[in-house]
Amino acid sequence: MFLNNQNFEKKASSYSSGNNSAEKVLDLKNPQFIYKIRLESTVTNNLLNLDMDKSEVGIPNTEQHLELSSPPKIDKKNKNFNKSYDLLDTKKNKNRQRKKIKTKIHIDDDDNDNFRDSTSNSAQTVGDLAISLMRPPKPKSQLIKKVIGNNKITRQKKEQIDLSIDKSIILPNSPPESIKLINPLTIQELSKLICIPETDIIKYLFLKGISVTINQTIDTTIISSVAKNFGIAVESHDQNNKNRQIRNSDIPFIVDNHHCIDRPPVVTILGHVDHGKTTLLDYIHKSNNANKEVGGITQNIAAYEVEFKHQKIVFLDTPGHEAFTSMRSRGANLTDVAIIIIAADDGIKPQTIEAIQHLQKANVSFVVAISKMDKSLDNVDEIQNDLVVHNVISEKLGGSVPVIPISSVTGENIDKLLETILLLAELENLQADPTQLAQGIIIEAHLDKFHGPVATLLIQNGTLHTGDNMVIGMTHAKIRAIINNAKQKINLAEPSSVVEIWGLSSVPATGEVALAVSNDKEAKLKAIENESTNSIIVQKQKALNSRITLDTLSTINSKDENKQVSLIIKTDNQGSTEAILDSLSQFPQSKVQLNVLSILPGEITATDVELASTTNSSLIGFNTNFAPGTRQAAAKLNVIIENYQIIYGLIEGIREKMETLLDPEYSEVPVGEAEVGTVFSLANRKIAGCRVTNNKLLKNSLIKVLREDTIVYQGTIESLKRVREDVQEVQAGNECGIFIAEFQLWQPGDKIQSFDLVPKNRSL
Ligand SMILES: Nc1nc2c(ncn2[C@@H]2O[C@H](COP(=O)(O)OP(=O)(O)OP(=O)(O)O)[C@@H](O)[C@H]2O)c(=O)[nH]1
């Protein structure tokens, strides 16, 4: 039988990216109470409505009395609450504690359902409050006057509210004036963020009918309610904040305006491959990197600090090659201001457009630098006109985007470019609070032969000190060394610094948020917690490996299930790891499936060789080295190791591996046509008497027999006769007899189409 046409059809592969990052967010609609709360007044014997959407924390607007009808019981489920609750109970307060149980609590929800406000606004209400349920006092020096809208909280009022409880749990820092909210947080994290003891937060939520433990995560609506309750303003993520402290990070930053300082701008250079990003940076930085890059292309984000007119600027150089979309997007998201570089001799190209889109999406101001002007080309106007199509209107054309022709060879206009960058940065009013624990983003990370896992960190807020404990996704760290841009060891690094950090437990993913925490235990615990919410790389690897969905599986027959390329990949750093995964995920996998068993930064080791041998995988390196003993192991186990230096070489190498597993594919090329006139029998064999109507028929050629457009047979002409003679071919206009042993059902009027099968170029 012939290969069926359908076998040649491309099946669209469907992509399923499993989103495993389930967040632990409290369900507010169905909370658990530790003990029964009875509503008096308008609603009797009614539990609090906890739908935050309806009334933030669901307390009816009319004044209500909550009566704690029984003492808090220590039930298993809520023992953490009671533990933290007990913390508050110093001996001194035990009597009050007993009294509290019988005390009526008034919650006046009129004022933004703010428990503290409602209690503090009325002496009578304060009097009704159970004393031990109140917030502990801050030391006098920490009692700051805050303004929240028109609602001033004076020192005197604070002292009224903050009746003494337990001084031992006072946090070292004063609460910030405002916080920026993006992610859900645990009570513990929130406590650190707003410098309010966990017990106070738990208490506040408890009074709202929400029972939580310190490790439980609450969503941003509840965080917002808590923050407001403690007099801390909340900025939402999408708030158009011109006076932004830090831009585009996934973590909320603690910024106390009292301590905020101006910080240097982070500037990203984006553009198409070879348009001169690295050469421009070299000129600015007076280094010579473009010549050192393998294959002349940038393959990771490089970061530099430079000083111009006594002002520091942090530059990020991003790769232009198409494989590095994630890195460019990350660069755009980290940056305060950007430079889009366009080579005068090449104009706007795909990665230029992609860069523009990233910046527009991230709402980042940018300047366009038209490079290679020393090549004496006069097409600046043309490029400016072309930019209009992409919604980039230059100042010359009446828009707001500065366009500066430059040469990184002669240095023409580079000063003007830097001045423009500083001007744009000034408009952003960039600030950070160096008094906080460091927070930042991992720009790059790799496994170093001598120092172990090493990461390049952009500090966005706070100050990092040697010896600090950090959590970076699933990695924890006790910072052993901080290396600055000049490759010197330093003791501390302030906001908008790019530093290398040593002392990490593993190689973190690029783009991962790095947070300094107060102690080693917390860093380790958080790293373990983060394991459940997979790292970026693990998520991408899973998505890539699970690209065959049930739909696509049904199109693969049992033979095809073996069509799988298994890979073990070792890379130079996490940025490359991500870029490789991104590129591989572009491959269609309906015909051959990819299975990335492991992709990690680091040297290729004998263990990798053994794993490759036992799993029948290809072992591939990218810009990495061989650990001692690796080559011997490879020779012994007959494992071939491919080590690539340029990303597109690696991607093409893997594509070829997949293509070698493809079934051969053919196209049909028509040869001739005939029509059956009569059918006669000869010694019980049916012979089709035909006339060739187009071109020719050949003996042994492939044919289809069609009856009213339905194929009734596909096969080969076994015997072709002209009159009585066997012939090899019959030309158009002549009659012939065709015999095919396995097809005897000829009918007059059947149409015969003869064709050749020509091998096609195989593609995934
Ligand atoms: N004449 C001239 N050549 C330049 C200029 N800027 C860059 N080049 C040359 O253009 C080529 C590419 O420059 P790179 O700086 O490596 O380009 P890139 O944009 O960093 O490339 P990727 O990192 O691969 O994205 C190199 O040969 C540079 O010497 C310039 O202003 N004038």
Blueprint of the fold:
Elements: H1 5-8, E1 37-39, H2 52-55, E2 64-68, H3 79-88, H4 94-102, E3 104-107, H5 115-120, H6 123-128, E4 146-148, E5 151-153, H7 155-161, E6 178-181, E7 185-186, H8 187-194, H9 198-207, E8 217-218, H10 220-229, E9 233-236, E10 254-255, E11 261-262, E12 266-271, H11 277-285, E13 302-308, E14 311-317, H12 325-334, E15 337-343, H13 350-362, E16 365-371, H14 380-388, E17 403-405, H15 414-428, E18 431-432, E19 439-448, E20 452-461, E21 464-465, E22 469-472, E23 475-483, E24 489-490, E25 492-493, E26 497-504, E27 513-517, H16 520-532, H17 536-545, H18 550-554, E28 564-571, H19 574-584, E29 593-601, H20 606-615, E30 618-622, H21 630-637, E31 641-644, H22 647-660, E32 666-682, E33 685-698, E34 702-707, E35 710-716, E36 719-722, E37 725-726, E38 729-731, E39 735-739, E40 751-759
Parallel strand pairs: 6-9, 12-14, 12-15, 15-16, 16-17, 28-29, 28-30, 30-31
Antiparallel strand pairs: 1-2, 2-3, 4-5, 6-10, 7-8, 11-18, 13-14, 19-20, 19-27, 20-26, 21-25, 22-23, 22-27, 23-24, 23-26, 32-33, 32-40, 33-38, 33-39, 34-35, 34-40, 36-37, 36-39
The structure holds guanosine-5'-triphosphate (GTP).
Region (Disordered): 1-22
Pfam families: EF-G_D2, GTP_EFTU, IF-2, IF2_N
Domain Tr-type G: 262-430
